[in-house]
Write a structure and sequence with these properties.
This protein has 321 residues and is an alpha+beta fold. The protein contains 5 helices and 10 strands; from the N terminus they run ααααββββββββββα. The chain has a domain at 103-304. The protein has helices at 14-96, 103-117, 124-134, 140-165, 295-313; strands at 167-174, 179-181, 188-189, 191-198, 201-213, 218-227, 234-242, 253-255, 259-269, 274-283. A 6-stranded antiparallel beta sheet has the order 3-2-1-10-9-8, covered by helices on one side. A 4-stranded antiparallel beta sheet has the order 4-5-6-7, with no helix packed on it. α1 (14-96) packs antiparallel against α2, α2 (103-117) packs antiparallel against α3 and α2 packs parallel to α4 (140-165). The chain is elongated.
Length: 321
Amino acid sequence: MSESPAPPAPPRDAWDKADIILKPVGGLLTALAVAVLGLWTSSYLRDREGREAALRERMQTTETNARLYSELISKREESESALRKDMFTSIITSFLGKGPASLEQKVLNLELLVYNFHESLNLKPLFLHLAREIKTSPQRSEYLARLNRVAEEVSKKQMLVIGEGGTTFDATLNLNSGSFLAPDGETEAPSVERDLVLEGIARNFKLEILSVDPKNEQIQLRVTVRTGSSASAETTSTEFWFDHFDFPMIDNVRLSHDQRLAVVLNNFDVARGVADVTAAYFPGKYAGLREKPYYDEVLAKLLAEKRRATEGTGSPAPGRP
């Protein structure tokens, strides 16, 4: 029995021919794509490593520079502190040590102390001590003018610093009647009041004149501070003497929430019978170096800042639903 012939192969159409041609081309394109992807990946990784290396180098350079800068600043502060310490010791020795010292030397030493340590020392006792000695000197007017000029310059410097974060108000006193003058210069009142707001805390300040000492150019005040609304107001009152030698950063009234109130005597004109004063309401951070906040005030401020930060993010504070 003879085998039947195989059926003839169907004719190839265009798709079959394209398949024969494109199979090897597809493999070639795949190989090319893999090669290109590998090259691109290697190039990307090399660039990334280069950027990271450059970043690390910049960070190391910045860290080195910062460390060097901090060391230089620290060494400079140490040298300045040593110099100020030696200066302070030398000047104080001239006041407290044995041995004669002329009035000129004492006034000069006081000027050095004031200009260099007015933010950290209460120098009013030295001012008053020298003022008493100067009264018996033939050059009384010259030395008193120097003391008053130094005190005025330091008060202005400190008030400029305080003015950056605080608020102030001025008042004019009638030394003869012991009352305050209105802005028109004619109306008088036994006291002056101002409502001031600082760091979100509203206070009412009332100043009253208790006594005037024209001879020593001193004024005794009563300051009443009312904090909060009228329904739940917290009231405190204090009395004190002040003169040209009371500097606001050092001689001030401590208030709650680490805040301060200082009264500065700008002018005391016995001939005209008037005196100009400025009351400054400012944060405690502007007080002198010796005036530090209490620990409970620091803790309360930190807790308040944390509470505000928590409320700002929208997440509930600890212990709240």
